[in-house]
Amino acid sequence: MKAGGHSPGTDSGLPVRPAGAHARCLNRKHHLAVSGQTVSYDHSLGLHTTSCNSCLEAHADRATWLELDLRIAHQPPGDRAGLIIRARPPSRPAAIGDVVLDLHGQTVGILGVALCGVDQRGLITRIEVNPSYRLRRFGTALVLAALNHRPGYRWATTDIGRSATVRAFWSAQHLPENMQLSDPVYCSHMKQVQGIA
């Protein structure tokens, strides 16, 4: 599917990638300096798109992707349409809040996260992406947004379970070396606010 030309309020169905320069394509890992790339704009979503010319010529899936800004907005988007990542802060520090991905004002992905600025800890408690929007890297975008929002924090997740889908998701992530999966580390502030002994 080629980018651009979508009517307002529609979804291009394209996968996402963090906005910025990329050496290789999303799909086949072609070196973009060799294969060539085409940059365009999806007016419906208000995002730039990038296409790998080699993948386009081969009619490959995922030849084009959306360049998503991973900075977390701290205000509701208002009239701003498109695809944005925003925060739903917790009621108290160190409690669980959400990082959400909104598509035209509708939440399509949620990452539950507890942050402690005192101990510099982050805990991912859940990740959910609407089944209609899976396999587009939305979950990856949410995880990266949280990690980038608090660089230098020590991160962990609650139990990720035994589901093959969930394990495949987490094993495909480029996580900090010290991140602990399925081994939650609650600082004293998180324990206090969440009532954990």
The whole-number mean of residue pLDDT values reads 90
Characterize the largest beta sheet: strand count, sense, and whether it forms a barrel: 5 strands, mixed
Beta-strand residue fraction = 25-35%
Number of separate structural domains: 2
The count of DSSP E runs of length 2 or more, i.e. the number of strands, is: 9
* Approximate shape: globular
CATH architecture of the largest domain: 3-Layer(aba) Sandwich
Count of DSSP helices?
Answer: 5
Assign the CATH superfamily of the largest domain: Gcn5-related N-acetyltransferase (GNAT)
Radius of gyration in whole Å, from Cα?
18 Å
What's the N-to-C terminus distance? 52 Å
Residues in helix, %: 10-25%
CATH fold call of the largest domain: Aminopeptidase
Strand order of the main beta sheet, please? 5-6-7-8-9
Give the helix/strand class: alpha+beta
Report the CATH C-level class of the largest domain.
Alpha Beta
Low-confidence stretches are 1-8
Order of SSEs = EHEEHEEEEEHEHH
3D architecture notes:
With 197 residues, the protein is of the alpha+beta class. The chain folds into 2 domains: 53 residues, no CATH class; 112 residues, Aminopeptidase (3-Layer(aba) Sandwich), CATH 3.40.630.30. It contains 5 helices and 9 strands; from the N terminus they run βαββαβββββαβαα. The chain has a 5-stranded mixed sheet with strand order 5-6-7-8-9, with helices on both faces. The chain has a 4-stranded mixed sheet with strand order 1-4-3-2. The longest helix has 12 residues.
